[in-house]
Amino acid sequence: MALRVTRKLAGWAFALVLVASAAPLMAQTGGVVGTAKGTDGKKLPGYTVLIERQGMKGTYTVKTNKKGGFVYIGLPVGDYKLTLKDPSGHALTYTQQNVVMGDPTEVDFNLAKDKGAQQVLQALKSQKQFGQLKDLYDKATALYNQRKFPEAAATYAQAVALATGTNAEVIVIKEAAAYDGGQQYDKAVAVLQQALQADPKSKNLHIALGNVYADMGNLDAAKKELSIAGQTADIKILEQREKVAKENQKFSNLKQVFTAADGMYNQGQYAQAGALFEKSIPIATGKNLPIVLGRAADSFDKAKQYPEAAADYEKAIQADPTNASFYNNLGNVYGKLGKLDLAIQQYEKAAQVDPPNAANYYFNEGALMENSGKFAQAAAAFKKATVANPKAANAYYLEAQALMGEAKIGPDGKVEPVPGTIEALQAYLQIAPTGQYASAAQQMLQTLTGKVQTQYKKR
Q1: Paired strand residues for 222
Q2: Torsion angles phi and psi, residue 82, rounded to 5
């Protein structure tokens, strides 16, 4: 008897229970043996068989092997409930069996013939699918709230594939709304029209489609869809949405041209960039207008097309008279055109508009005057720069240099500096004793005073 059982169980994975007893094992125990198959008839490896003794305490487990088989030897004789669980621990089906002494009792699980198990599997599948659906929906909604509309639409589309019934309709409308938010109106319309083919009487889908048409500025189509849904269109709201749609389209066109011009600018194609920026001026409104004008002017400046640059900077100032950089840059352009008086006016206006940075604008004025050989005016401008910013070291040095242009040679052959020259050099060395002009400043001081200053302290 023992030899026959051993042959029958050869190749099976089994668990052996040791029972504390003086009597032989086979004389008091039995066992269970069987196979687990799925709804498709295939063997189920790695599934758990829970063996629970009824009436008396006793619980045992065994897993199916690679071929879906299982065996448990050494069960006390009695009634048992055997439950098959999937690898995740979900109970799929169970059976009641009486285990007798001797050979193992055969217990097979065949889910293809078990309607109860099939219902459990379907419920588990639905539960898993709903969990995946919820995760995708939550992810898409988060992207939508972050205004990442293309990514949100793509994620809603994934969720639609898992949704059914009312959920599917809700998510389709969300997908269309995401396309709508990203101004991908054609895609929004296509999604809703496809859904309407499956459910042409859906009021919600018609309303959603009407809203998309309104955002597109197609009021007639919007009214038609809302009418099908049994709603009366609010003309004022539709007209407002039409206005917004036109503004959005205008901005989209502006962005497209601006991006292309910016690409040319970054490639050093300044003349082409300026011309393209100018093409976007008629469609630029509000705060975008001075930005476009400024970029066009900057492009023409770098292309050395100074008259065009000056004209666009003048327009930019009209569009935004509070932007000091426009005045400063126009001053630079006027300087390149040789219009020094106009350049000075622009630097002065920049300083008035932006007092915290006035020293920079006066510095540019001084540099232009000095480069033009107008040393007295240059010195005056640099002086204004140091008054606006007492720590502007280079302005002190350039002021002294400009004043040296007004110096005279005395009868004794010595340089006679105009008042303020020495003080400006000393101020520079106090602020920047190791600055880029420190050596030159010391030499100038030595020339003017006949003394060598060996040490300066920072102010």
Answers
A1: none
A2: -110, 120
| Neighbouring C-beta atoms of residue 81, cutoff 10 Å | 14
* Its pTM surpasses 0.70: no
pLDDT averaged over consecutive 10-residue blocks of the chain (459 residues)? 36 42 56 89 91 88 92 90 86 85 88 73 62 80 89 88 78 88 89 90 89 81 83 64 61 74 90 87 81 91 95 94 95 95 96 96 95 92 95 93 82 80 92 93 86 48
Retrieve residue 323's tokens: 């932007």
State both tokens at 378. Answer: 């240059």
Phi-psi region of 427 (alpha: psi -120 to 50; beta: other; left: phi over 0): alpha
3-state secondary structure of 43: strand
Tell me the C-alpha distance between 156 and 133, whole Å: 9
Cα separation, 164 vs 166, in Å, equals 6
Q: What is the spatial distance between Cα 448 and Cα 393, in angstroms, rounded to a whole number?
A: 20
From 266, 246, 255, 329, select the one nearest 294 (Cα to Cα): 329
Is the distance from CB of 143 to CB of 174 less than 8 angstroms? no
Which domains can be identified in the chain, with CATH numbers? 2-113 (2.60.40.1120), 120-233 (1.25.40.10), 239-321 (1.25.40.10)
Which helix (H) or strand (E) is 79 found in, with range? Answer: strand 78-85
Instruction: Please give the full DSSP string across 81-136, using - where no structure is assigned.
Output: EEEEE-TT--EEEEEEEEE-SSSPEE--EEGGG-HHHHHHHHHHHHHHHHHHHHHH
User: How many residues does this entry show for the chain?
Assistant: 459
Place of tokens 């002190």: 396
3-state secondary structure of 358: helix
Backbone angles phi, psi at 243, to 5 degrees: -65, -45
- Burial (0-12, 13-18, 19+ Cβ within 10 Å), 225: buried
Going by C-alpha positions, the residue among 284, 361, 346 that lies closest to residue 319 is 284
